[in-house]
Amino acid sequence: MTMKPTKAALPPATRASAKGPLPARSEEAPASNRATRAAERRAAIVEAAMEEFIARGFAATRLDDIAKRAGVAKGTIYLHFKDKESMFEELVRIVIVPVVAQLTTLPPPAGSVRDLIEAFASNFLNEVIGTRRGDLVRLIVAEGPRFPSVADFYYREVVSRGIAAMRALIELGIARGEIRQKDLARFPQILVAPAMIAVIWQGLFARHAPLDAQEMLRVHLDLIFGERRTT
Fold it and tell me: Which residues contact 30 (CB under 8 A, 6 or more apart)?
């Protein structure tokens, strides 16, 4: 949450003078305060929306309930979002997209391709499994078929980016001789399969049979890259 600037933190030119009229730039402070409050309300709405979507599902979530949870009037929501769908899209951008963006902005690996993939996948599992991000992914999997526009948005913003980045890493691994199965580049979904399995398993079956997602990832990468040699 953005903190409101204190008087001590403001430049001298923006502070009120005890002797005489305010400087010409004094109008900036109220405008800044309004922008800060608006940003705080928007963040509260998005957070409330996430809780409502996860608790009720996309179809059953009502703007009235989001407004109540966020502590704002229903009309305030329309100052920030045109409808429930645009609010959900904003939620995906804030909660899910940054995790995938970590993969698309990785530098060329100094070590092995496996090391790079393993590091990203481990971080992904830590940030998604057992978190609200995982709940959101499961919601999209469950309700995406009923709301094609939501699924289409998620594919554009998340899935297509992740698949493209994984394909590039697979092709690099093939070129370096780390991956022998060249057809894997045609199906990068295979590489990310453990992450999706872990997300779905966590929501449905973890209470019956807890899954060690990190260990499953290691076994999966052994199948693709070969087992690590130990000395």
Answer: none
Q: What angle do CA 102, 198, 117 make, to 5 degrees?
A: 35
Tokens 């999997």 -> residue: 141
Query: pLDDT > 90: what percent of the chain?
Result: 64
Helices (H), 57-186: 63-70, 74-80, 84-95, 97-104, 113-128, 132-143, 148-154, 160-175
Q: What is the residue whose two structure tokens read 């979507």?
A: 53
The Cβ of residue 120 has, within 10 Å, a number of other Cβ atoms equal to 20
Q: Give residue 81's identity as a one-letter amino acid code.
A: F
Q: Which two tokens stand for residue 117?
A: 């993939």
DSSP 178: S
pLDDT at 175 over 80: yes
In terms of pTM, does the model score above 0.90?
A: no
Angle at CA 123, nearest 5°, toward 145 and 108? 100
- Provide the sign of the torsion angle of the four alpha carbons 196, 198, 199, 204, taken in this order: positive
